[in-house]
Amino acid sequence: MQTYLPTRVMLTLGSTKLLAILIMLVLAFTMSLCSEADAFIGSSLLSLFGTAPVVAFLVFGPMVDIKNLLMMKRYFNTRFIVSLIGLIALSVIGFTLFI
Fold first, then answer.
1. What string of pLDDT tens digits covers the 99 residues of the chain?
2. Is there a contact between 7 and 47 (Cβ–Cβ < 8 Å)?
3. From CA 28, how far away is CA 66, in angstroms rounded?
4. Residue 75 Cα to chain centre, angstroms
5. How far is CA 78 from CA 19, 56, 70, in A?
6. What share of residues in the chain are helix, strand, coil (percent, to 5)?
7. pTM exceeding 0.70
8. First to last CA, the chain
C-alpha cells in the first residue's frame, strides 16, 4: 500500500480517526491475511494511522475476511452474514473510537 499511495495521501486519510478506522477495516477485509501476518502489516502502518485504526485492523481482519465470507456463505443465509458483519464492524468501531 505504501508503494502505490503517496505518503501525503495516507497521512490525509489517517488524519481523521473515524475515517482511518473505516479504511483499516476495508483493508483488513480485502487483504484477507492470517492473524500472524496482519501483525506485521499493522505494525508498519502504526506510524501513519495511529493506534486505534491498527487495533481495528488487527481485531476485524481475522473475524471478517473474504475466505471466511465464502465459508459462511455455504452454511448461513445472506441476512445472517450481513447482520454478523455489521455487528462485528459496529463493535470494533465503537471500541476503537474510545481508545
1. 667 777 778 778 778 999 999 999 998 998 888 777 888 888 888 888 899 999 999 999 999 989 899 999 999 999 999 999 999 999 999 999 998
2. no
3. 10
4. 24
5. 27, 24, 11
6. 80, 0, 20
7. yes
8. 25
